[in-house]
Amino acid sequence: MARTLVLLRHAKAEPEADLGDARRPLATKGRKQATALGPRLAEVTGTVDVALVSSALRTTETFKLVSQQLRVRTHEVRDELYEAGPRQVLAMLQELDAETATVLVVGHEPTMSHLAFLLHDTQDDLARQVSLGIPTAAACVIEVPTAWAELDRSTAHLTQLVRLAD
């Protein structure tokens, strides 16, 4: 069974305000980014079986706008994704049902790019790009040839970086 993992960094957020980092909303630019990214992700992934979304306001808003143009069967907002590092997100992925084909994770930097780099099986141009981090509203699309429970370092293949033109 072919599996696809999409690691999406949230769209552009407002600078930190008195409400704290977790309550930062999307900026006007971020709302436009997320709206434009939805159809691009739909072309790349088709239907998403499970979306795991950080509980931060900017990630939930990004997901809401992206999912207007992207079919998502089920989603979970998870508090632990807000501060999770690559290994913590990997552990969440390893717990997914084996029948899940396509997963979207909406999270934060540097976790999204570090996890993509960790999973990627080749040192190529895409690896170099993500090793430097990814911009807001960018998604790492990863082919996963193993069961989710077996996903680990260098066991998947980063096929593309979906990003919007500046």
TrEMBL record:
Q: Which UniProt keywords apply?
A: Hydrolase
The record's GO molecular-function terms, alphabetically, read: hydrolase activity
InterPro entries reported in the protein's UniProt record:
His_Pase_superF_clade-1, His_PPase_superfam, Mito_Ser/Thr_phosphatase
Against PANTHER family, the record matches this protein to: PHOSPHOGLYCERATE MUTASE-RELATED, SLL1549 PROTEIN
Name this polypeptide is given: Phosphohistidine phosphatase
Q: What are the top taxonomic ranks of the organism?
A: Bacteria, Bacillati, Actinomycetota, Actinomycetes, Micrococcales
